[in-house]
Amino acid sequence: MAEFKQIIGHEQIIQHMQNAIRQKKISHAYLLCGESGSGKRLVAEAFAKAVLCEEGGIEACGKCKSCKQAESGNHPDIRVVVREKATLGVKEIREQVTADVQIKPYSSEYKIYLIDEAEKMTEEAQNALLKTIEEPPEYAVFLLMVDRQELLLSTVLSRCVLLPFYPVATGKIKQFLMEEKGVPDYLAESAAAFSGGLVGRAVQYTESEAFTEQREEVLHLVKYVDQMTMAEVMENVKLFASKKDAATEYLDMILLWYRDVLMYKATKDINALMFANEPEAVADQAKKRSFENLQGIVEALEQVKQRLKSNVNFETALELLLLYMKED
C-alpha cells in the first residue's frame, strides 16, 4: 500500500484527509471520484494505512505492525470488498459489509472498507449499503471509489464526503516517471502527454510495447509523409485503419506532433515540445509548412476524431486526412 508522500498530485485531497486525521474528525463515508488511473485507489489505501498507523500521525510510519500488515495486504481492519461478477450485488454487500461491520475492529480504533468501482453496485446493493452508512458504528469508515458518480443513487451520494480527482500536471508526471520509474526522457514525455493527467495511465503507457510501437509508427508517418508516394500513403491508411480500436490514440499522437510544429513555428522554443527528442524534425517541418497549412491539419485531425465517434467510414476519413497532411 502506498503512503501519502509517494503520491503524485492530489494535494488538496491529501491535505483534507490529513486534517481529518489530525483533528480526529474522520467521516464515515468518502466518495473518491475520478477517471480510471487517476490514483483513487492509491489515495484510499494511503488514507487507510495512515488512519490505522500505531504512531498516530498524519502519515503512515511504514514500520509499525499495523503498517506492515497493511503493506502485505493482510490487515484485519482493512476490508476490501470483492466483486466477482460484472456487477456488485446485494448478496456481496450484505456478506462483506452489512454483516461484517457488526464485528468490532480487531486491533485498531477504526475498521475501513474499500469499495472500488462502486458504481457497479446494483440498485439493491446500493440501498443495502445505504442502510449501513446512514447509521454506521462509530468505528466504521467507507471509502467508495467511482469513475462516474452519477451512477450512484443520490441518497448514497448525499451520505458521502465527495473528493473529486483532477488531472495531474504533465510536468509532474514526466518527472515522476523519470525519477521514480527510470523511464527515458523521450518516453516519459510522450506517456505524460498522452495520459490526460492520469498517473496510472502514464505508467501503463511506459510499460506497454503497443504504446512504443504506436509512437514509432506515428513518427514515421509525420516525418516522411511529404516524401511518400500515393501507394505508400494508402499503405499507411490501411495500417491505421486496421487498428481502429486504438484510432483515438493514434490521432491524438499525430495531433500532438502538429501542435509541436505549430508551437515551434510561433515561438522557436524547443523546451515546449512534447516530442522533445525530435527537435530537428519539428524545426524542419515548421520551416517548410505555413501557419495556415498547420492550422488546417490540426482542424482536419479534430474533424476525423469527431467522425470516428459518429461511426463514419474511418478509412475514407483517414485517407483524406493523410492526403491533406501531404500537401504543403
Task: Please describe the topology of this protein.
Elements: H1 11-22, E1 29-33, H2 40-52, H3 65-72, E2 78-80, H4 90-98, E3 111-115, H5 123-134, E4 140-146, H6 154-157, E5 161-164, H7 170-181, H8 185-194, H9 199-206, H10 209-224, H11 230-241, H12 247-267, H13 279-288, H14 291-309, H15 314-326
Parallel strand pairs: 1-4, 1-5, 2-3, 3-4
Helix pairs in contact: 1-2, 2-3, 4-5, 7-8, 8-9, 10-12, 11-15, 12-13, 12-14, 14-15
Description of the structure:
It is a single chain. With 328 residues, the protein is α/β, with parallel strands linked by helices. The protein folds into 2 domains: 4-164, P-loop containing nucleotide triphosphate hydrolases (Rossmann fold, 3-Layer(aba) Sandwich), CATH 3.40.50.300; 208-326, Zinc Finger, Delta Prime, domain 3 (Up-down Bundle), CATH 1.20.272. It is built from 15 helices and 5 strands. The chain has helices spanning 11-22, 40-52, 65-72, 90-98, 123-134, 154-157, 170-181, 185-194, 199-206, 209-224, 230-241, 247-267, 279-288, 291-309, 314-326, and strands spanning 29-33, 78-80, 111-115, 140-146, 161-164. The protein has a 5-stranded parallel beta sheet, covered by helices on one side. Helix 10 (209-224) packs across helix 12. The longest helix is centred in the last third of the chain and has 21 residues, at 247-267. It is elongated, with a radius of gyration of 24 Å.
